[in-house]
Amino acid sequence: xxxxxxxxxxxxxxxxxxxxxxxxxxxxxxxxxxxxxxxxxxxxxxxxxxxxxxxxxxxxxxxxxxxxxxxxxxxxxxxxxxxxxxxxxxxxxxxxxxxxxxxxxxxxxxxxxxxxxxxxxxxxxxxxxxxxxxxxxxxxxxxxxxxxxxxxxxxxxxxxxxxxxxxxxxxxxxxxxxxxxxxxxxxxxxxxxxxxxxxxxxxxxxxxxxxxxxxxxxxxxxxxx
Length: 225
Ligand code: B12
Fold this sequence. Notes:
Layout: H1 3-15, H2 19-31, H3 36-56, H4 62-89, E1 98-103, H5 111-122, E2 126-129, H6 136-146, E3 150-154, H7 162-173, E4 181-185, H8 191-197, E5 201-202, H9 206-224
Parallel strand pairs: 1-2, 1-3, 3-4, 4-5
Helix pairs in contact: 1-2, 1-3, 2-4, 3-4, 4-5, 5-9, 6-7
Bound molecules: cobalamin.
Cobalamin is lined by residues 45, 48-49, 51-52, 56, 65-66, 69, 73, 106-113, 115-116, 152-154, 156-159, 183-188, 203, 205-206, 209.
């Protein structure tokens, strides 16, 4: 079976809330040497997105969506912990830079942020993931504590995007705007939104996020040299 068929099966497993099948697909992919992060993004996540559209059309109820989301979350954690192991085996990554990630206050969506965090880790970055519903004060406090290079926030609700703006305002107020490069993401965010609030960058997905982070870190390193 080629990887495209596996991606389709992964999508099917999420659409049908079939956790047993989903776990079996992860095993099969691992045995065949299919990259698990790609399976997560191109398979399971695509199923999750489609489920969201089905929910929006009123075909399934919120409890059904929540049930499927729980499975998606389990599978995401399962895959990420497996990748964690191989990360350890790959041993000492060069620490290219540190990124603080958080889903903003009032927002519990963390699946996409988890994927971005893991992809960045796999690309050699240290990622401190504060989880979800994180207030701006806490984000800034932790950024200072860990002396990070980038603060990356996720917002999935139009009502919580304002927290990303609040972060920019607070950074300016505390004279920290020049110290941290900020990055925003999540389905309702756009480049226009990032420009409007004065964020350093917007990124649409995990792969693009790595490109943006690489560009920023490289330019920062060049300036130092
Ligand atoms: C799964 C889901 C849930 C799950 C969340 C589980 C979890 N642990 O995350 C549950 C069921 C709990 C949930 C709850 C709710 N949800 Co919901 N949910 C979704 C759904 C279907 C999928 C989100 C998802 O995980 N997508 C898959 C991931 C991989 O994609 P992603 O998050 O977009 O992330 C990618 C990119 O955006 C980007 N990215 C994400 N974050 C970041 C951060 C950075 C820094 C960068 C660079 C990139 C980046 O990279 C990721 C990987 O490519 C969406 C619909 C949709 N299609 O988006 C609705 C959706 C987001 N939810 C919605 C709503 C309304 C709610 C509820 C308010 C429902 C309710 N009435 O209670 C609550 C919110 C509670 C709260 N306070 O947060 C709405 C939001 C509408 C809006 N525009 O405001 C949506 C759009 C559905 C809809 N159309 O109605 N939800």
